[in-house]
Amino acid sequence: MRRTPWLHWVSILLALLVLMCVVSLHAYAGVRPKPVRHAGEQLDLPRGTFALAFHGGPDPKWTPRTLDRLRDAGVKATFYVTGAQVTREPDLARRIVAEGHQVGLDGFRAEGDLGTGLNLALAQAALADALDGHTTLVGAPREIDAGYRDFLDIATFVRKSLQPKKGVIRLYDNGTLGGDAARRLAKTRGYEFVRVSDEPLIPVAAHERFTGAVTTWAQRNGGIVLVVFGTAIGIAALLGILRTLMQLGLAHNDRRMRREEEAPPWFAPPVSVVVPAYNEALNIAAAVTSIAGNNHLADVEVIVVDDGSTDGTGEIAEELDLPGVTVLRQDNQGKPAALNAGIRAARHDVLVLVDADTIFEPDTVGQLVQPFADDEVGAVAGNAKVGNRQGILGRWQHLEYCAGSNLDRQILHALRCIPTVPGAVGAFRRAALADVGGVSDDTLAEDTDLTMAVTRAGRRVAYRPEAKAWTEAPVSLKGLFRQRYRWSYGTFQAMWKHRGALAEKGPMGRYGLSYLVAFHLLLPLLAPVMDLLVLYGFFVADAPLALLVWTVFLLIQTASAGYALRLDGESLKPLWAYPLQQVVYRQLMYAVVIQSLITAVHGTRLRWMSVRRTGKLANAPGTVPVN
């Protein structure tokens, strides 16, 4: 397959760039800007000289009036602005500077909002975007507080302000006496009115201008983003509730109907089991031995296809010298080619296709073929279970199999549109395979591709939960990511390949693809938004209710997972790990889906990624799994 094209890496680099911008902004926010002079410091002004300082603006109603009066009086002043108001009224901020007045900072959101480096950095960022500069004046002036609340008479206000004979007169740029007081002060004879200082704005660098643009965009569009987030959360919540209802309804009814149905006569056709194997030396002996040791009532032949292994897989299978087991060898051509080679060599019309890292229970083959008593059934999905479920990662995957994949199959079995017969344990009627041209190598999820093709050809796919097979799950986060990335990407490939089913009347188009889009694409993409908004509400927006809502949602999901375990005949003991799985493991699955979607959108041909095997399944065939 082709190497990953440059567009794929562009996506990753863009994501890293965004991350670096966030990190840079955080670092920038923690450092104070160039040396600043706090306006409360004693100013060396001559007697009879005052500096007019307005703070709290720029205000869209009152600041223009104040500027008009200052212009008419020929007086220059200093405006201590807030960053949020500068972002809202950038044109007024530019007018202040254009008319020769000085700009200082009095916070980001309100007066005195400069308690942290972050607030100061955000306020300076607002200036960088609106004025292309930073100010050295920080902090509201405190030398003479006009105390406008104590004066209702302008004349008294002016007289009290001038009593110290010199200094800074602090006014509020919100219409409360500010404009009128400025006019009266400016007209007072015998006094000179100046700016706090003559220090100009400091030009900003390109990265500071970029930071300002980003913070300004965030402030102006934050409401829209929150609406989008809220909508995404609403959709995710509805999907989660819908899946729970489908679980309680369809999955429960499907299992109940199975119990109530009169058991048909045991069906025992001859079976051929095809085992494709590539470098499976650690598992091949246990897998083949478990299959050959089945108690099926009819003939079972086992065909191991060694697909160019370099670790002696074929030799190990041959050395077992088990009756009914044949080993075929071919150059490495991939799993689909190995399966097709085994199918061509098989003698029987019922074909079990199984991965080489899977262990069957003694009755798995017999259980798996029972639905074929119905001539409409073209394929049967078995019940794949995690064998090496010790440790937290093993438990998480065990819960995912039971509350995810197997539960999905029960729901979709009721809708007659199972999209995937798992490679770990599945069976096909030879005629159904012939109808679709065998196993295709068009996607990395050949099992999903094949199952969708069989369903679209008019055959029914059944689920047999009693046909249990134990598979080895990845033992490291890296191995898990590689495996699920391939599965997810292959599923998207198969969905795209069979998109034509949407225009057909069959169940795959009506239900199967819709189910995959809703619960395997949209829900994983939207669910992270809920986590982000919870963090926003709890740590930023002072909304602890968000955490409560998330906790209730988690409890509902945990109860749902417990019910899924019961439906699958499993113990509830591993359920304690489910909340932690939703906090940690789920984030990895989000990353898998997002990465797969990016790769699929770019049209990248992802190469096959094998997972390191340990050969240590926790359960021998027929034993009770360790919880």
- Total number of distinct structural domains: 2
- Strand percentage lies at 5-15%
Overall mean pLDDT score?
A: 77
Low-confidence stretches: 1-9, 19-42, 142-153, 618-627
**End-to-end Cα distance:** 40 Å
Number of strands: 18
Shape: elongated
Biggest sheet, strands in spatial order? 13-12-11-14-17-16-18-15
Largest sheet: 8 strands, mixed
Given helix and strand content, the structural type is: alpha/beta
**Helix residue percentage:** 40-55%
Radius of gyration: 35 Å
Number of helices: 19
Question: Which features characterize this protein?
Answer:
about 625 residues, alpha/beta, TIM Barrel, 2 domains, 8-stranded mixed beta sheet, 6-stranded parallel beta sheet, 19 helices, 18 strands, disordered N terminus, disordered C terminus
Describe this protein's structure:
The protein is an alpha/beta fold and 627 residues long. Helices cover 50% and strands 14% of the residues. It has two domains: 31-204, TIM Barrel; 233-263 and 357-601, no CATH class. The protein has 19 helices and 18 strands. The chain has an eight-stranded mixed β-sheet with strand order 13-12-11-14-17-16-18-15, with helices on both faces. The longest helix is centred in the middle third of the chain and has 55 residues, at 206-260. The model is unreliable at 1-9, 19-42, 142-153 and 618-627 (pLDDT under 50).
